Structures are given as structure tokens and as C-alpha cells.
Amino acid sequence: MTQSELADYLQAQRTAIDRALEQFLKVYGGQTQAVLKAMRYGLFPGGKRIRPILTLTAGEMFGAKQKELMPFACAVELIHAYSIIHDDLPAMDNDDLRRGEPTAHKVFGEGMALLAGDGLLTEAFHLISGPEVRRLPAELVLRLIHELSHAAGVAGLVGGQAVDLESENKDVDLATVEYIHVRKTGALILAALRIGAEIAGAKTGELRRLSKFGEYLGLAFQIADDVLDNIGETIAGEGGESGRNELKKATYPSVVGIVQATERLQELLKLCDRELVSFGESAAPLRAIAKHVIARAVQDKGRAAEESIS
Ligand code: GRG
Prior knowledge:
By secondary structure, the chain is an all-alpha fold. The chain has one domain (3-309): Farnesyl Diphosphate Synthase. The chain is 73% helix and 1% strand. The protein has 13 helices and two strands. It has helices spanning 3-25, 34-43, 50-61, 66-88, 104-108, 110-127, 138-152, 157-167, 174-199, 204-236, 252-256, 258-276, 284-309; strands at residues 97-98, 101-102. The protein has a two-stranded antiparallel sheet. It is globular, with a radius of gyration of 19 Å. Residues 47-48, 50, 83-84, 86-87, 99, 157-158, 161, 184-185, 222, 225 line the site of geranylgeranyl diphosphate (GRG). Geranylgeranyl diphosphate binds next to helix 4, helix 8, helix 9 and helix 10.
């Protein structure tokens, strides 16, 4: 898959996801409570939609239809949107900007931002336990709800975020950094992929290989994000464009340095590729996504090095 084919592919998936999210929120059409406005603010225009795309891509790779996958893809994005709103709060990362715009609590106030996050998280599970999933066997739906709630809970996002919070302004080792990443970022990425494959009825061995791929990709995703953040701050000056009210965070670049962090990214890309080999051409979109996620940080690191020299 070429870069321009990947760009078209991602855009088409994003458009379908946005349409489905809009459709789902129509349930609340006509209502104008501030909390709904704050929820929409967290969801639209949104970011890359990488997690729901992974659900669609993994599911379609094993033969599922987009219609069956979409409620789960939307639920994954609703959870992501909640986590971002809460993560930005003063009690957490204390960010003023997200995707170049003021964060939800800056616009709606802290209480309303907290409730918007709660609303998004709850609606995710409302969506995948309701009429939208009636085409799927009830036992499968129950299993997927169980899996997604596990990824969102103490074993995943919440647990990872808690250790992240405890680690602020402390010296942490690499094992702790990985512990945080695997839960805070990796768990939802892994669940997004697995849910798609499970809806499609992937076999045990296929699911095992896809899960290994998901673990590597989840870790790579956070390292890439931190490398890009680090570069942004190097180029723009400390605290530059991140909008973050500075805290010392447990990240790969802060513990092992940017060179080792990018080497680890390259290693993770190889591991991702290895897990996809047996799927052949059907894994082309997943392969391209992994490369895209990782390469953007590795290439930018080269650019940053040049700019700091000139
Ligand atoms: C329970 C109060 C309470 C809070 C929990 C779970 C949680 C808050 C936070 C999750 C941690 C989190 C936000 C991790 C960040 C992971 C990450 C790299 C986010 C950025 O993801 P992208 O790049 O964002 O996919 P876009 O903008 O594209 O959607």
C-alpha cells in the first residue's frame, strides 16, 4: 500500500466513523444541555480516529462487514474521547490545548468537562449493549463488552493513568514507563484490534498473532507520541506548543533519551511486521498503519536533529 493509498484509506474510514458517531448522537438530537455540547466538543472534529480504524481494519481483514463492526469502533472512540478530556484536566496533565484548540475544561469548566468524560464513557457501553448490535450473537457481545471494559478499567487505561500520576516528578525506570504505556495507551489499541477480529470470527492462532501485533503497536504508539512531543518542545523551546503546564513525565525519551527511543521504535516496527507475515496481502492496511505511526516520529527526529544543527 503506497502512502497516498493509505491516506485515502484512512480518510474513507474516518468519514465512515464520523458519520456513525453523528448518527449515534442523534438519539440526543434537539437536546441542548451543556454536557452534550461538551461531549460533542471532545468528539468533533476529533483526531486521527486511529483506534476505531483499527477495529474496522482488523475486522475487515478477517471478513467482517463494516456495519457489524461500527458500533464497537464508535465505542472505542467514545472511550478515547473521554480519556483525553479527563487526561487534560488540571488534576491530571493540566493541558490548556488539545489538537490546537482550548481543552474541554477551558471552554466548559472543570465540572462539566468531568461530566462530559463520564458521559462519553457511559455512552460507549450503552451503545454496544443496545439495538445497534442486535445482528451479533448475544454471547459474543457480552464477551466483547467484558473485554472492552477490562481495557478501560484498572487493568488498562485507569490503572496506567494512576501509575502515570504517581510517577510525576519522580525518577522512574524503563520497566515502569513500559508498565504505564502498556496500560494507559496499549490496552485500548489492543482491545480495538481484537474486538474487530473477534467479531469477524478470527481463529485462535490468528487472534494470538494479531494480539502480539497490537501489543507492539500500542507501545510504539505512545513512544512515537512522546518522541514527537519531545521534538516539538526542543524546536519550540521548553513547553513550546504543547499547551502543557510542565510536569516531569515518565516517558521513553526522558528515561533513555531520544536516540534509544527511536531505535526502540524501529525494533517495534520489525516486530509488528513479523506478526503480520502469515496474513499476507490481507494485512496490507495494518502493515501500512504501523509503519505510518512509527515512521512519523522517526522521520521527525531526523528533521529535529537537522534544525538543532542549523
Ligand atoms: C479515571 C478520572 C479518570 C481519568 C482517566 C484513562 C485516562 C483518564 C486517561 C488515559 C490516558 C491517555 C489520555 C493516554 C494518552 C494516549 C495518547 C497517545 C493519546 C493521544 O492519542 P491520539 O494521538 O489522539 O490518537 P487523537 O488526537 O488523534 O485522537
